[in-house]
């Protein structure tokens, strides 16, 4: 897994990967956003909805902790070993949005994530125990790993997916 020298390096990488991912949608027509192509497991709209869902969960976990509540990970009613239903809830939540609206929401959520990180200390981001929600699983990951696997990593892998989708959609 990629490592980061400091929080600014993490923020910069999130911004960079988000921009590259989002740019791929410039050439996708709104009427095609829900089209599935053989060999690609999600539609363009679902790809963005997936990203929105995970970024929102991180922010929700943080909000719950700041309110003195215990964050439920991944989400109330869902377990880590069966995330399919959670993904479906992400897709349902984004139904009815245009591709342009989804891209705008994505940009806003990236800004929210990077703003959240900017407000944390290096220790809160990089040391285990920086947040209770980040320590809620046996892995006891520090915040940066949670953020990485829900931003940089999927922004990168889903960029490959949308490129493949566009090639097949031709």
Question: What do you see in this structure?
Answer:
It is built from seven helices and no strands. With 170 residues, it is mainly alpha-helical. The protein has a single domain, classed as Up-down Bundle (Four Helix Bundle (Hemerythrin (Met), subunit A)), CATH 1.20.120. The mean pLDDT is 96.
CATH homologous superfamily heading:
dinb family like domain
Spans of 5+ residues with little confidence (pLDDT < 50)? Answer: none
Helix content: 55-70%
Shape: globular
Main structural class: mainly alpha
Reading off the top of the CATH hierarchy, the class is best stated as Mainly Alpha
Count of helical regions: 7
Strand content: under 5%
In the CATH classification, which architecture applies? Up-down Bundle
- Average the pLDDT over all residues and give the rounded result: 96
CATH topology call: Four Helix Bundle (Hemerythrin (Met), subunit A)
Distance between the termini: 33 Å
Could you say how many structural domains there are in total? 1
CA radius of gyration: 16 Å
Write a brief caption for the model.
The protein is an all-alpha fold and 170 residues long. The protein is built from seven helices and no strands.
């Amino acid at each position: 897994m990629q490592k980061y020298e400091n929080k600014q390096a993490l923020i910069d990488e999130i911004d960079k990967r988000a921009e590259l991912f989002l740019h791929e949608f410039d050439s996708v027509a709104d009427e095609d956003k829900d089209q599935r192509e053989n060999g690609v497991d999600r539609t363009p709209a679902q790809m963005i909805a997936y990203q929105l869902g995970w970024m929102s969960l991180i922010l929700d976990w943080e909000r719950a902790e700041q309110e003195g509540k215990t964050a439920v990970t991944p989400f109330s009613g869902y377990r880590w070993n069966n995330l399919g239903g959670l993904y479906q809830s992400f897709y349902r939540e984004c139904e009815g949005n245009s591709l342009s609206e989804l891209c705008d929401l994505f940009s806003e959520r990236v800004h929210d994530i990077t703003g959240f990180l900017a407000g944390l200390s290096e220790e809160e981001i990089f040391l285990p125990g920086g947040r209770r929600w980040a320590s809620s699983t046996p892995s006891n990951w520090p915040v940066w790993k949670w953020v990485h696997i829900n931003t940089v990593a999927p922004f990168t892998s889903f960029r490959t997916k949308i490129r493949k989708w566009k090639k097949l959609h031709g």
